[in-house]
Amino acid sequence: MKKRLLKVTVISLAVLFVFSLIGCSITAKNSSTEKTFEQTIDEKLINISNSKDNIVSLSSNPYDYIKGIDSNKDYKYIVLQGEKSLNYMLNKFANSDKNGLEAYIMAIACSEILKENPASKNWASGGEWYDNYIKGKY
Hints:
Blueprint: H1 2-33, H2 37-49, H3 54-57, H4 62-67, H5 69-80, H6 83-94, H7 101-113, H8 126-134
Helix pairs in contact: 2-5, 2-7, 5-7, 6-7, 7-8
């Protein structure tokens, strides 16, 4: 009777140990594959500014980059996140280079999120948009 109880206990502990290892493995795998919101926005901005469309990638017009089929999905995602995207991009403007294609795309997205009138646009770069925003011109 004692041998049987000892066997059952050992087998139960072994099974419990195996399940705990499997659980730890799944948890580690999930945490390494989950992206933060900021990482997702950065990835989408990179996708937009590094268009795989040869015609778009030769363009000097930032609006061409957000009109591409795949790029437009990424751009719409950013804009649909609303204030959360806006706050992240404003922080990114404050802590990084404010010029270049990615900054211009961020400015376009911020402007759309803020529902700014496109006809009143008086900026020529992402940095200029951000500076106007900080000064309260929008």
